[in-house]
Design goal:
The protein has 269 residues and is α/β, with parallel strands linked by helices. The protein has helices at residues 40-55, 77-81, 98-106, 125-130, 154-160, 166-175, 181-186, 199-211, 215-228, 233-248, 251-261; strands at 16-21, 24-29, 61-66, 70-72, 112-116, 119-121, 133-137, 141-143, 179-180, 192-194.
Length: 269
Amino acid sequence: MTETSLSIDGLVFETLELVRDGHVFTITLNRPTRKNALNTVMVTELVYALDYARAERGIRVVVLAAKGDVFCAGADLRGMRGDAAEASTSTVPKRGETDDVATRIRHLNKPVIAKIQGSVLAGALLLVCNATHAIAAHHAKFSAPEIKRGIWPFMVMAGLFRLMPKRAGLDFIMRGEPIDADTAAKYGLINDAVAADELDSSVSGLAASLGALAPNTMRMGLAAYNKQEDMDFDDALPFLREQIDACVQSSDAREGISAFLEKRAPRWD
């Protein structure tokens, strides 16, 4: 199945709720009785929903939210232990594995906001670390407790150490102790911690402001950001020069410059 043929119409999503409001697409984790743990069905549905969001031109911002008291408890340990899979009503086709959730978020090339209403544990950090933005309620805790289960958060490290200082990040995963939202903000794991009753308005305002910006330029800029991140400086600079040359010739740039000169709001395609 190609991206252009993706549709969510008629599909049964068992572990997610999907809502589109204008240019904003909200993906809500909906396994609150299991602390939104990532089981096989949820992973399948997340990968598909993210592929759909990337393919849909009208979607400019994705919000990752969750129901219940916990944002996500990471991987469902029942599955890791080898327990039999639960019966599922989901009809969403499989397009990837757990690591693909992280890469889909990172390479969506659209703003992705993690709306964190409760604690984030273990593999849930894959969602938070690879989003472009993360806003948390003050009471939320963040932890990588895998070491206490005899496991190491291998995949989490790829995103975590692109955000947190190395010694802080190592201590975080080596001891498995939780940090509060203010500490997470201090270390760059999240953008901001807000009062619980301000979380909805904070995320909605951020999504609206991002969704009002040049969408094609946003995609181009985020794609270039991801590509240049691991380049040597001497390789990154000529690559980025090529990108700015292409950008100023784009329809977004033409419209943005015209709107500025004509003293009006831009009308993006």
